[in-house]
Design goal:
With 181 residues, the protein is mainly beta. It has one helix and eleven strands; from the N terminus they run αβββββββββββ. It has an eleven-stranded antiparallel β-sheet. The longest helix has 24 residues, at 2-25. The termini are far apart. The model is unreliable at 1-24 (pLDDT under 50).
Length: 181
Amino acid sequence: MEKRIIIVVLLWSLTGYINAQENMEEIKVTSVSQLDFLIGTWKGEGWKMDQNRQRVTFTQTETIVPKVENSILVVDGKGYAKDETSKEPKIVHDAYGLMVVNDELGIVTMLSYSVIGGKMETPIRLIGEKIIQWSFDTPNGGKTRFTADFSKEGFWTEKGEFSPDGERWFPFIEMNLEKVE
């Protein structure tokens, strides 16, 4: 009898946890002010896979500032790695983005520009407390997604993953930043 009660309690708890996760994934970002926790200057390190599938470590700075009476967030990211030949730093990540409400969709989207992805507009999803995610289809039929976790005060952890089929995900970039301003 005790085992049955324990199993029922565990299943009930698990159902509550799953429902909470599902509800969290449904949170729409409809206002830039929902993303105020992003604002600041962030610095740290990370790694990414290069064209030869070699892991490259880099230092990263991301600056996020509100503009136009807090109606948009401007994101400016630069990453540097040491060039093995010249031993000088070279840019390995250069991206610029605007987070703004897309009036047609009624949600916040990020209009981003980067060497890798060119120009893109992707919806920003809030998938947990201070955890955002954005994703897009790739030209070769796969999918790419980024998850940025700000839930630990003063820290930003971001992971980029690629999926050839939308089910199996493979990491290709990760960075761990600390808020400096």
